[in-house]
Amino acid sequence: YEQIADELENDQEWHDARMACLLPLFVPSPNRYNSTGDVGRDKFVFNPCPSMKSGSSLKKYGFLGKLVGMAARHGLQMGLDLPTFYWRRLASQQVSTSHLEEVDKVFLNTMRAIEGVLEEPAEDESAEGMAAALGVERFLEVALSDGTIVPVTPGGSDIALDFHNAEVYVREARRLRLDEALPQLEAFRSGLAAVVPVQLFSLFTERELEVLICGQSQMDIGLLKQCTEYEGVSANDTHVRFFWEVLEEMTAEQRTEFLRFAWARSRLPDSAADMPMNFKITAPTGGAVTSPDEYLPTAQTCFFSLALPRYTAKETMRSKLLYAIKCTLMDNDFRPMA
Fold first, then answer.
1. Which are the contacts of 338, defined by CB distance < 8 A and separation ≥ 6?
2. Given CA atoms 238, 240, 243, 248 in this order, what sign does their dihedral have?
3. Contacts for 59-62 with beta carbons within 8 Å, 24 or more apart?
4. What is the per-residue pLDDT across 26-85, written as a single tens digit (0 to 9) for each?
5. Considering Cα of 229, then 234, then 238, then 239, what sign does the dihedral take?
6. How far apart are CA 233 and CA 282, in angstroms?
7. Among residues 21, 49, 302, 327, which one is catalytic?
8. Which residues, in sequence order, are CB contacts of 3 under 8 Å at separation 6+?
9. 107: exposed, middle or buried (C-beta count within 10 Å: 0-12, 13-18, 19+)?
10. To pair with 290 at 20 to 30 A between CA atoms, which of 40, 121, 190, 326?
11. Beta bridge partners of residue 143, listed in sequence order
12. Quick one: angle between helices 206-214 and 55-73, nearest 10?
């Protein structure tokens, strides 16, 4: 299940926004693709391209919903990085255009700029006057999250924005962006409903629902410590304390990569009771016993186990652990490397 989420949200192969993910069900949010906004740079959205609203494409979103539902029923977390307003809609909560801040801050800023122009008295209310006020000529159209340009009104791509149609344009553009993938989300919900009781979703907040289905997006080191056992080593050993200190100092992305390295998952469950197994730190073997600083830590993902050499310095622990995380491929046997 974890690999399904990885493949769906893999945007490392393409640089064209319309082909940003290996599979077409998702596209990176404009905030992620353009590295804009203070939030949402880790979010993906359902592909809003009109072709993805066809019957065959909607069946794929329904199938995805069934997979996510099956994972949830078995206590497995699929790390889908969906916007907050997706979870609000799944929980039957109201959404507003302010939630688009997490997806496309540039779009919202543009709409606010148009509203700001409308608040000021204008001598020239024509399209030329609006273009002069905004610094660019605009038409009654909007770019969706995948880059597709669609008119907000019939023929809008040929109608210039002016002071007379701007208020309606802002309102309709915001509505269109908020609902750009609504059929896909409804198909996804229908797939979920085939496996889990979606009528109970309204009992949860959007955050609670996301955690229930996807797990914690930020790794809870306190929870991991609580669910750690030691074999051949002690929690008080110097190198073990180095390990926890380094983990605390990692970025959120590095912690996620550590989980992938050690467990082949990107998220922890919400509580200790939901952990299917404990994390295990074990003593090193082979050459790592006598020459620890020359070896990397090794992981067994099936057992959530990490064999940790007794590094003599914290910085050695940091460099070796980060190197192992970056360079070791999952599904291989993790062998010590000099």
1. 287, 294, 295
2. negative
3. 59/187, 60/25, 61/25, 61/184, 61/185, 61/187, 61/188, 61/191, 62/187, 62/188, 62/190, 62/191, 62/194
4. 988 998 888 887 777 778 899 999 889 988 999 999 999 999 999 888 877 777 889 999
5. negative
6. 6
7. 302
8. none
9. buried
10. 326
11. 149
12. 80
pTM, full prediction: 0.71
Conformation bin of residue 62: beta by default, left when phi > 0, alpha when psi is -120 to 50: alpha
pLDDT at 24: 82
- List CB contacts of 270: < 8 A, sequence separation 6 or more: 211, 212, 215, 216
Locate tokens 């997006």: which residue?
Answer: 217
Query: Is 302 a residue of the active site?
Result: yes
- Judge contact between 81 and 42, C-beta under 8 A: yes
| Residue whose structure tokens are 């914690």 | 216
Report which residue type is found at 234.
S
pLDDT (tens digit per residue) in 279-334 = 999 999 999 999 999 999 999 888 899 999 999 999 999 999 999 998 764 444 43
